[in-house]
């Protein structure tokens, strides 16, 4: 009878510090939120600022409308996920941040790390998602 470790990749939990280290370079991640019609996930360019991620979106977009609150600086529950997968080796990692997101004031935006969105149109709504929870997993070769 073959053992479970017969060349199959292993899944391991990652510590908070390792999760933050993995996403530190920035790039593309996904914001998960409720848009009023149910769970929604959209890709965004992001940058890491401490234990938060900064991302931008269009003022007229659904993401801005869903995460904006009537209270300046008020948070909306959201999640943010980044992963890196190598399909050839079947290895990689995934990091999930859960917490509150809020639109940045002009002063917060001026002090925030820079995020350069890939799309060519305007992305003038800046958000910070502060991580209340950070979790991650890595899939390693067996």
TrEMBL record:
UniProt xrefs under Pfam families: Pyridox_ox_2
InterPro entries hit by this protein: Pyridox_Oxase-rel (IPR024747), Split_barrel_FMN-bd (IPR012349)
Protein name: Pyridoxamine 5'-phosphate oxidase family protein
Organism from which the protein derives: Actinomadura graeca
Organismal lineage: Bacteria, Bacillati, Actinomycetota, Actinomycetes, Streptosporangiales
């Amino acid at each position: 009878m073959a053992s479970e470790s017969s060349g199959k990749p292993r899944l391991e939990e990652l510590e908070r510090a390792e999760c933050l280290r993995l996403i530190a370079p920035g790039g593309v991640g996904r914001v998960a939120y409720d848009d009023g019609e149910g769970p929604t996930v959209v890709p965004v360019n992001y940058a890491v600022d401490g234990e938060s991620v900064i991302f931008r979106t269009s003022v007229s977009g659904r993401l801005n409308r869903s995460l904006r609150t009537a209270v300046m600086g008020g948070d909306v529950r959201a999640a943010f996920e980044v992963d890196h997968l190598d399909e050839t080796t079947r290895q990689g990692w995934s990091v999930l941040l859960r917490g509150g997101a809020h639109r940045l004031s002009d002063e917060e935006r001026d002090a925030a790390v820079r995020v350069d969105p890939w799309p060519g149109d305007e992305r003038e709504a800046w958000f910070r998602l502060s991580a209340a929870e950070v979790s991650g997993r890595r899939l390693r070769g067996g």
